[in-house]
Design brief:
The complex is a heterodimer. Helix content of chain A is 0%, strand content 55%. Chain A is mostly beta strands. In chain A, strands 2, 4, 5, 9, 10 and 11 form a 6-stranded mixed sheet that branches. Chain B has no helices and 11 strands. In chain B, strands 2, 4, 5, 6, 9, 10 and 11 form a 7-stranded mixed sheet that branches. A 4-stranded antiparallel sheet of chain B has the order 1-3-8-7, with no helix packed on it. In chain B, a hairpin with a 2-residue loop joins strand 5 and strand 6 (53-57). The radius of gyration of chain B is 13 Å and the shape is globular. The interface between A and B is medium-sized, with 21 and 27 residues.
């Protein structure tokens, strides 16, 4: 069935780049998302990529998609303390379909 | 920027009681969703709603659950005969269909 896997924790020094990785199983996934959840808050859509794209850049965020390996990554350049949160990788077949989430990667920023 | 709003932010209910979670989706959105996140676990899809009817529901969404759009703005999730295992964060989301889903801040439901 559909599944999204990601590592649970990542620690990065402030100012360095963070790279959060994700793999998914459903080759028919058309849309791949990154959501951010700060403590006590909801799910904030950070960015998303269509499966016919390899890369998408938005300011400090770069998303890379390897469709052959079903691997998605999120790179955050110049990581700041405000980036400390849980980052969820997610996928859906179509834009109005249910979203399948990973368990989330907790990003911890070291001073 | 328009946002999805959910009320209440925290609901405490006795086991066996009924609870209604409320959501106001973004005004021009046509697709509505409920998800839940049990503490420490994944965010799980419950149900999607379009054109005044359920378009898809998960195995979790059994007869205990129902959804309604009682007027032009609200979208509610009703849970009857609540159980301890219904304790979770419940997220409402909406989309216009041509864009991604936008989520509310969630309602934390605690069943005692």
């Amino acid at each position: 069935g559909e599944d999204v896997e990601q590592s649970l924790f990542l620690s990065v020094r402030e100012g360095d780049s963070s790279v959060i990785n994700c793999t998914y199983t459903d080759s028919s996934s058309t849309y791949l998302y990154w959501y951010k959840q700060e403590p006590g808050a909801g799910l904030q859509l950070l960015t998303y990529i269509f499966s016919n794209m390899d890369m998408k850049q938005d300011q400090r965020l770069t998303v890379l998609l390897n469709k052959k390996d079903k691997h998605l990554s999120l790179r955050i350049a110049d990581t700041q303390t405000g980036d400390s949160a849980i980052y969820f990788c997610a996928e859906s077949m179509n834009r109005d379909d249910k979203i399948i989430f990973g368990k989330g990667t907790r990003l911890h920023i070291l001073p | 920027e328009p946002e999805v709003t959910q009320t209440p932010s925290h609901q405490v209910t006795q086991m066996g009681q009924e609870v209604i979670l409320r959501c106001v989706p973004i005004s021009n959105h046509l697709y509505f969703y409920w998800y839940r996140q049990i503490l420490g676990q994944k965010v799980e899809f419950l149900v999607s709603f379009y054109n005044n009817e359920i378009s898809e529901k998960s195995e979790i969404f059994d007869d205990q659950f129902s959804v309604e759009r009682p007027d032009g703005s609200n979208f509610t999730l009703k849970i009857r005969s609540t159980k301890l295992e219904d304790s979770a964060m419940y997220f409402c989301a909406s989309s216009e269909g041509s864009g991604p889903q936008h989520f509310g801040d969630g309602t934390r439901l605690s069943i005692l």
